[in-house]
Amino acid sequence: MNLLFVSSEVAPFSQTGGLGDVCGALPIALAQRGHRVVVVSPAYGRANDHLAWDTGVTARFWLFGEQHDVRYRVYRPQDNLAFVLIDSLCFRRSGIYGDSNGVYGDNLMRFALLCRAALEVPRRVEALADGRLGDEFVLHAHDWHAALAPLYLRAHYHPVGLYTRCRSVLTVHNAAHQGRYAASEFGGLDLSPRHMETTLWGDTLAALKTGLVSADHVTAVSPSFARDLRTPEGGFGLDAILRRVPLTGILNGIDTTLWDPASDKHVPQAYSLHDMAGKAACKAALQRELGLPVRPEVPLFALVSRLDGQKGVDSVLRLAPWILEQDLQFVALGSGASTLQNGLKGMEARAPHRARAIIGFDVPLSHRIYAGADFLLVPSLFEPCGLTQLYAMRYGAIPVVRATGGLRDSVRPWGPVSHDGTGWLYDEPDQLGQAMFWAFRTWWDHPSSIHQLRVNGMSQDWSWGPAAERYEAVYQG
What we know:
alpha/beta; Rossmann fold; six-stranded parallel sheet; 18 helices; 21% strand; globular
């Protein structure tokens, strides 16, 4: 198959979270299965010019009363896989979605331009070793930033006999972000008035809703998230639409070559499922790096997270007095809301011998934390898929997670009799303390269970192969 991905971010060129991971790794897995894959994303800040070459191909689009010129740059890691970066003035800024002053006010225009420019790639840009993607492909759009692409496909190309055999798929990574704007913004989108009803949701223009009703199929990034989206409680106001459209939940994978404790260049000592001796060395090295006492006998709990309301970090802060009284160590890495950052730094200030808070986004350090931690906390209020729990299990850190979305699908509850399961799950936000207590007691009272939990987690296949196979079925209709 020919596949055209459109996403606002794609690793290694741009990334703020899981969206970039998925759109960098899933195309590789699909290309390895023999498909021709082109991934289109903006060229932000020109930081990646050394990776992508200028094709010399340009295009011009009229949006929001202004002319926008784009150039197409290409990075081709293998013959049947290419990343096409859209170079335009509106993308050459310090941030992807905003800066220190807030979210960019023209994001609707910027991502409409991405969608329009992406749909020209199959017929204009010789991105692959054997030429252009061609006129017959599956368009795979991701989140609200690319959700106008299925409508543009129907509105601009089908009426003139182009791309008439193309299917479109929209993947919802986070339904909380819907690309909602004033209805008056419709006039800038280069669409006929007959399409206005498609773009409106209530009295606002809603990009995500537009994609949901325009795509041939919708996917969500885990089966539980797909089910939640069809409920009033979990649908973010879109549940009625999502009950009407074809919807499939597919759990994300991870890049198991990049996230592999046996070969990870970021960790001080390699280890594997069959030889875990190096994990203890990684724990000691992490304790030294962060200035904590080197104590192999105490459990080390970690939190690696974006710091915002969705992630449930405030439930950790409410437990801080109990956590800091226990004979354990706690390490947090993340950035975001200042109140949450200050709360985590406050834990460190109150008990510097037990707690560390590192504010920032540090990928190499996150690898070392997964390698050195005994437990990973994922207290999300909602979590469409989640990747940190997958990284943790890959590195033998035992997840303690709230049973929501992809966390529920990927972590199996520990059975002390059956010795089955990969971690601890809890239902309500205020039950995190109970789950931590059981993990803590198991550490001290049943060390053989801790070993079995590590083995169970590291034995799971979190590669992209199973997910790629499920996406193939969706693409084929």
